[in-house]
Design brief:
By secondary structure, this protein is an alpha+beta fold. It has three domains: 1-81 and 148-219 and 316-372, FAD/NAD(P)-binding domain; 82-147 and 222-309, D-Amino Acid Oxidase, subunit A, domain 2 (D-Amino Acid Oxidase, Chain A, domain 2, 2-Layer Sandwich); 382-460, Arc Repressor Mutant, subunit A. Helix content is 30%, strand content 23%. The chain contains twelve helices and 22 strands. The protein has helices spanning 13-22, 61-80, 96-112, 122-128, 150-163, 206-212, 282-295, 339-356, 382-391, 407-415, 423-430, 443-454, and strands at residues 2-9, 29-32, 49-50, 84-85, 89-93, 118-121, 138-142, 146-148, 167-169, 176-180, 183-188, 191-200, 220-230, 241-243, 254-257, 263-266, 270-271, 304-315, 321-326, 329-333, 398-400, 405-406. Strands 5, 6, 7, 13, 14, 15, 16, 17 and 18 form a nine-stranded mixed β-sheet that branches. α1 runs parallel beside α5 (150-163). The protein is globular, with a radius of gyration of 22 Å. The two termini are 35 Å apart. The model has no long low-confidence stretch (mean pLDDT 96). The structure holds flavin-adenine dinucleotide. Flavin-adenine dinucleotide is lined by residues 9-15, 32-35, 40-43, 46-49, 51, 173-174, 201-203, 205, 209, 225, 267, 310-312, 335-341.
């Protein structure tokens, strides 16, 4: 059994940011993830907004960590080479009653320390966003609202942690935790690690993990959120993120551009019991369409290229649950929205908690907070690209035509920490398959490159982890699964 100072359970954005923050210090840290890749939970399927922080109840952990996280995010994204755009958030109101709700948000935001908030008229809002509905009467403007790519952020945080010495163990589904010898034996079936400190960042399963350690006094309810993503042709409809006024179930439906230039609308908010149900429904998507259309009429739904669903981890306390009920065992549970925005601040907070509990933090001399972005080639000038292609011809071969991703970029991603093992893993790192045709043309080439890199037969490559074979039937002498 291997020994570690810290074991982090769950490689979402929270576990990823905490691992990265710990990688600054001379510690042995392991990140344990049940799936075959990182970022397979809520962190890959959300609105991707770095919330300004006006929506959280003053005095809560959410308020504290959201505002701090939003302040930190630009620098963190810059260090990790992840796209981040401060595009402004606008909450729209359709009546004088809604104006009251906007005033309430403004007041909460100011109490939370959010900068530069103001209420503007519908006409002023339409000057900023000409496609807004003529029925919008008032709007709350939050210039510190931003957008980021959530899966690139998570993958890059884990990759940077690994580059700085953190060990990632995928396929490690924690099934038992035993308090022993001043630390914890964390097991996945027969396989175990020992760590002096354990951080529970298991998303919708964080209640189950806490219960294994005898440190659970909360429950987690999964809350579905369905989305539609439109082609880049529609991405220019709005610059800012447009929200409705929030309800008891959350921030409501929004319309936003993404950092990659698509248009995103959603999410719904429906509590469910199944912690695995990320299916989309006709009713859910129709309600997204109708509510988005109220704010920004005429969104061309024919340009929807995909739909998806994420599960929020709604904690029974309705706040982030970050506590240490057992010595050395820290829960980061109930990290629903604004968890993405807050993740860098949650990491900072947890590192302080660890230090407060006796973990010695000695800075490494060779810690490197930066990492070359996946999309470095895209950002070169044509002359620079020419130069790279001359040295490495794979950068001259386009694999994904919709997103202009080259073989060189895919080979680069296959070699970087954390390495992808399936087609969707390559997609989240390079955008190959993210475009209009959704992988129709590039998937066979990506499968070939994965097979070559992993040294496995073409037909053994999966779409998204165990069992999700793409080649399932016999083709001219191929093997039958
Ligand atoms: C619909 C929706 C919209 C959202 N919009 C926003 C937004 O715009 N802005 C914002 O700030 N926040 C938003 N959020 C919230 C944000 O996405 C989450 O707060 C954040 O992603 C939570 O990260 P996490 O690492 O805690 O959880 P996750 O990303 O779910 O990661 C948990 C990880 O733990 C792993 N795991 C689970 N059980 C085990 C086990 N037994 N052993 C090992 N590993 C395990 C999982 O496989 C997973 O990888 C949204 C969330 C949703 C669902």
């Amino acid at each position: 059994m291997k020994n570690y100072d810290v074991a982090v359970i769950g490689a979402g954005v929270v576990g990823g940011m905490i691992s990265r923050a710990l990688s600054r210090y001379d510690l042995k840290t392991v990140l344990l993830e049940r799936r075959d890749d990182v970022c397979m939970g809520a962190s890959r399927a959300n609105s991707a907004i770095v919330h300004a922080g006006f929506d959280c109840e003053p005095g809560t952990m959410k308020a504290l960590l959201n505002v701090r996280g939003s302040e930190m995010m630009e620098q963190v994204a810059g260090e990790l080479g992840v796209p981040y755009v401060r595009n402004t958030s606008i909450v729209v109101g359709f009546s004088d009653e809604d104006r009251g709700k906007l005033e309430y948000l403004l007041e909460k935001g100011r109490k939370n320390g959010v900068r530069d908030l103001s209420i503007i008229t519908g006409d002023r809002a339409r000057e900023l966003e000409p496609k807004l509905s003529p029925n919008v009467k008032w709007a709350l403007l939050a210039p510190t609202g931003a957008i980021v790519c959530p899966y690139e952020l998570t993958i890059a945080a884990v990759g940077n942690a690994m580059d700085n010495g953190v060990e990632l163990r995928t396929g490690f589904e924690v099934s038992a935790i035993e308090h022993k010898d001043g630390g914890y034996v964390v097991s996945s079936g027969e396989d175990s690690v020992f760590a002096k400190y354990v951080i529970n960042c298991a998303g919708v399963y964080s209640d189950k993990i806490a219960a294994m350690a005898g440190a659970c006094d909360f429950t987690i309810t999964p809350r579905r959120g369905e989305y539609m993503l439109l082609d880049k042709e529609s991405g220019g409809m709005v610059k800012a993120t447009i929200f409705r006024t929030p309800t008891a179930m959350g921030k409501g439906i929004l319309v936003t551009r993404t950092v990659d230039g698509n248009l995103l609308m959603g999410p719904t908010a429906v509590n469910i019991e199944d912690k695995e149900d990320v299916s989309t429904t006709e009713e859910g998507l129709e309600s997204v369409r109708m509510q988005a259309d109220d704010m920004v009429p005429g969104i061309p739904v024919r340009q929807v290229i995909t739909s998806f669903c994420g599960l929020r981890s709604v904690g029974s306390t309705h706040d982030f649950i970050i506590n240490q009920k057992k010595p050395g065992f820290i829960n980061c549970a109930g990290i629903e929205s604004p968890g993405l925005s807050s993740a860098p601040a949650i990491a900072e907070y947890v590192v302080d908690m660890l230090e407060g509990s006796g973990l010695a933090l000695k800075e490494k001399k060779d810690y490197n907070p930066t990492r070359r972005p996946f999309n470095w080639f895209k950002n070169l000038t044509p002359e620079e690209k020419d130069d790279v292609i001359r040295k490495e011809p794979a950068y001259g071969r386009i694999v994904c035509r919709c997103e202009s991703v080259t073989e060189g970029e895919i080979r680069n991603a296959l070699a970087m920490n954390p390495q992808p093992h399936d087609v969707d893993g390559v997609k989240r790192r390079t955008r190959a398959g993210m475009g209009r045709c959704q992988g129709g043309f590039c998937s066979p080439v990506v499968i070939g490159l994965l097979a070559q890199q992993m040294g496995i037969p073409f037909e053994d490559v999966t779409k998204s982890g165990k069992g999700s074979y793409i080649m399932v039937g016999r083709t001219k002498g191929g093997r039958k699964k």
